[in-house]
Amino acid sequence: MENILITPKNEKQLNLLKLLLEEMKIQYTFERNETELINRELDKKINEARQEKKEGELLTVDPKKIWESI
């Protein structure tokens, strides 16, 4: 038997697929895409840091003078 990997674009598509599979009595399992979650969190942190830099709130630390920079 073959496996099919389906990646819905949104929650609505996911719900429709679940309903279809249940209606057809097809066994299925779900796996979370952890890298997608990590990428979203990383993107959020990067955007927050960029915003802080624009507002002049970003704390920069010189690695050669760590204690003086803090």
Description:
This protein has 70 residues and is mainly α. The protein has one domain (11-69). Helix content is 56%, strand content 0%. The longest helix has 22 residues, at 34-55. The N and C termini lie far apart (60 Å).
What's this entry about, in short?
The protein is mainly α.
Key descriptive features of the protein:
mainly alpha, elongated, 3 helices, 70 residues
Portion of residues within helices: 55-70%
Low-confidence stretches: none
In total, the number of strands is: 0
* Structure annotation, total helices: 3
Q: Judging from the principal axes of the Cα atoms, what is the shape?
A: elongated
Main beta sheet, described? none
- Give the N-to-C terminal Cα separation: 60 Å
Rg over alpha carbons = 22 Å
The secondary-structure element order is HHH
- What is the strand content? under 5%
Q: Label the structural class.
A: mainly alpha
Give the helix/strand layout.
Blueprint: H1 11-23, H2 34-55, H3 66-69
